[in-house]
Amino acid sequence: MTEESIETDNPMAPLTGGGFFRDINVEFLIHELKDPISVIETAVRMLLEKPDKFGPLTDRQEKALNRALRNSKKARSLLADMLEVGRSDAGCFQSCVFDPASIVDEVLMEALEAMDAIPWETVSEAGQGPDRDAVLRKLGIHLTCSEVVRDAQLCQDEAKFRQIVGNLIKNALQHRRRRLDIGMDVLEDQLIVEVVDDGPGVEKENRELIFERYTRLKACVLLSRTGHGLGLAGARILARHLGGDITVKNNLGEGAAFRLVLPLTLP
């Protein structure tokens, strides 16, 4: 993997104006919160992984600690999302060459681990290859890549790409009923990633509003469980900073189909 620094802005530089952060104290707070969350996550991991040192756990204790671990990961992921959006607003990018299909595969596993431990354990135990694909299909998750994608190399900001795809996959996992489809293709020097669920869908009048920062929509079924549109808003902001965009289609009751389009090379 080769890396090229597009901009070398200090990540702690003030993010002012119309950017995601209107005060440097907000970004400073994010940096300060990352350390205690990491400490909590490490402590929980030690209790789970070193029973010889800290003593055996009951089933109820192990389940409680695993829940705490998953939620600490969610908190860390949210902070990372906010920080990446802020860095994009500040014009800070790190471009490198990577395999998008492998990254999407890794992000899917991370999303499963963060949102539901049982499917993640089942899938991870299956290893790689056809066996794991079969397990995913049994769980209603279908990941397809065109031959062009398998041979493609993306020259983009990998951290931000992970954040975007992770947001879309987690959103679909949260709202699907039984099925999640993730498709990847390359068309005219652009990477296309489609994330489709069979959940409640998005009303036509709300298809742009769900991308508004901190939007609260009682009428929008898609946001009824999350409370605000920070994740989707952040994903679109990142995509547009990388020269692409995110759109959503489908009618209420037919599920939501999110489409990410990114140039193969960061502009």
Task: Give a brief rundown of this model.
This protein is an alpha+beta fold and 267 residues long.
Structural account:
- A hairpin with a 2-residue loop joins strand 5 (180-187) and strand 6 (190-197).
- Helix 1 (24-49) packs antiparallel against helix 3, helix 4 packs across helix 8 (158-175) and helix 8 packs antiparallel against helix 9.
- The strands form two sheets. The protein has a five-stranded mixed β-sheet. It has a three-stranded antiparallel β-sheet with strand order 1-2-4.
- The protein is 49% helix and 16% strand.
- It is built from nine helices and eight strands.
Question: Which descriptors would you attach to this protein?
Answer:
disordered N terminus; 9 helices; globular; 267 residues; alpha+beta; 2 domains; 5-stranded mixed β-sheet; 49% helix; 3-stranded antiparallel β-sheet; Heat Shock Protein 90
Q: Helical element count? A: 9
CATH superfamily of the largest domain: Histidine kinase-like ATPase, C-terminal domain
Provide the number of structural domains: 2
SS-based class: alpha+beta
Strand content: 15-25%
- Shape label: globular
